[in-house]
Amino acid sequence: MDASGSGPLTIGGATISGGVAASLTLTGTSAHSNTVSGVMDDGNADRLGLIKDGPGTWVLAAPNTYSGTTTIKAGRLALTGPGYIGENSVWIYEGATFDVSGKTSAYVMNANQFLIGQGTIRGDLAVGGGVWPYYPGPGVMTFEDDLTLDGATLQIMVAGMGGAGHPEGHSQIVLDGGVLNLVNSPPISVDLNFDHDPGLGSRFVFARGYGSLSGECAMEFLIPALNPPASWQTKNKFFRVDRSVPGELALEVWSPMPGSSHLIITDAGPGGAISPIHPFVDNGDSMLFKIKPDPWFDIAGVTVDGAPVGAVTNYLWENVTAPGTIAAAFAAQMVTTPPVAVPKWWLAAHGLTNAMDDVVWEDQDGDGAPAWKEYAAETDPTNRASVLRIIRILANEPIEIGFEPGSTGRTYTLQTATSPTGAWTNVSGQGPRAGAGGPDTMAHTNAPGDRRFYRITVAVP
């Protein structure tokens, strides 16, 4: 869609669906704000993406549902009223603007969405997936208003050299006096480009210009390996966050003095988190650890250096004088009334959060299987086409029965009978076994010559 005329262009009313094309481009040079008020969805496209190009402005005024990437190459892409981008990540090029100031509250990008690239963000923004201020090299991402990182990974590239517009040679987020909110201990991920090995005392400012700061980032850094045989451990070098300069967060490469501080390893199992992550604690000091289960999980137990301390939500480790480990295990909340217990997180992942004890018995998509059977088969309870099915039978020797899906997290058994009403018996050597991770095949060798019926059974290990 090209808005290069003298007046504003408005596209409204109808749903705009993807077809053969995998992306929709909004472009133009008009100085006016052009508006799309129709909902953009995938339609017949596998994943419809949106591209904003050209120096003009396009405003999205509808709650769009397309699932492809939103790419802002130039100009300004704005949201207003109920306007939303799709359910994927946003790539923003240097010089382009992503404007969410037309929303009545902070615009929220969920845990599966990432903000990647360079450029400017206008309006309050909360990110759950990650912020990566680089592409293809270290970049600067500018936020004119408040930024919230809600557990979102902040990916920092350290290249060891400057480039045009990036003299410091590493990624930065820059706030124009806004509030930087760090929620749920967002981790810092360090990408050392060009095999750069920063020396002790190196300091990289990765966030600056904020008017105020709330919360803490995780004391965990996802650091790539150095070229063998060197390693961060053998060189006794670590990254830590330095907040000594007002309005700045920096990564500092440091080495603790022997005995001056101790590393506490945090080991959180699936379904929850421990914060802070892998902190260094000064000798003789104490550290408060917080144990938080994910939604639909409970704390099963916490251990400190292998000794159980109960299913606690907080643990104060006092008088730290040696390295140690704190570990937490989490248990999924289950609906136990059907023949197969169903995790509540699985129901929630498919949007089935109301009256879970009842919904497990319901056939949400009309394919003949209630939700608990869909869980057992690891199919989608909201997609009628997602079913466990036999896809072919080849009357060879051996007889081959193809089926899908064959999930690696389920076990399958081939059964045979002379009548569809049974009695069904297991075919020797054909299960129970784990699925192949997609379409799968089982076989009946030396089958009797009489008429045969076959079925596949599935079980949760």
Task: Report the end-to-end length measured between terminal Cα atoms.
Answer: 52 Å
Strand order of the largest sheet: 1-4-7-9-11-14-17-20-23-27-26
Principal-axes shape call: globular
Major sheet characteristics: 11 strands, mixed
Radius of gyration: 27 Å
Enumerate the spans where pLDDT stays under 50 for 5 or more consecutive residues. 161-167, 230-235
Task: Give the total of domains.
Answer: 4
SSE-based structural type: mainly beta
Continuous helix count: 3
State the assembly state of the protein chains.
Answer: single chain
Round the mean pLDDT to the nearest integer and report it: 85
Helix fraction bin: under 10%
Strand fraction equals 35-45%
Q: What's the β-strand tally?
A: 44
In short:
The protein is mainly beta.
Q: Would you write up a description of this structure?
A:
With 461 residues, this protein is mainly β. It folds into four domains: 10-261; 262-332, Immunoglobulin-like (Sandwich); 346-377, no CATH class; 389-459. The chain has three helices and 44 strands. It is globular and about 85 Å long.
What structural keywords apply?
461 residues, mainly beta, Immunoglobulin-like, 4 domains, 11-stranded mixed beta sheet, 9-stranded parallel beta sheet, 3 helices, 4% helix, globular
List the helices and strands and how they pair.
Layout: E1 10-11, E2 16-17, E3 23-26, E4 33-36, E5 40-41, E6 49-52, E7 57-60, E8 70-72, E9 76-80, E10 90-92, E11 97-102, E12 107-109, E13 114-117, E14 119-122, E15 125-127, E16 130-132, E17 140-143, E18 147-150, E19 153-158, E20 172-175, E21 179-183, E22 188-192, E23 203-208, E24 212-214, E25 221-222, E26 238-242, E27 248-254, E28 261-268, E29 272-275, E30 280-282, E31 287-293, E32 297-304, E33 307-310, E34 314-317, E35 324-332, E36 334-335, E37 342-343, H1 344-349, H2 356-359, H3 371-377, E38 389-394, E39 399-406, E40 411-417, E41 425-426, E42 433-434, E43 438-444, E44 453-459
Parallel strand pairs: 1-4, 2-5, 3-6, 4-7, 6-8, 7-9, 8-10, 9-11, 10-13, 11-14, 12-15, 13-16, 14-17, 15-18, 16-19, 17-20, 18-21, 19-22, 20-23, 21-24, 22-25, 28-35
Antiparallel strand pairs: 23-27, 26-27, 28-30, 29-31, 31-34, 32-33, 32-35, 36-37, 38-39, 39-43, 40-41, 40-42, 40-44
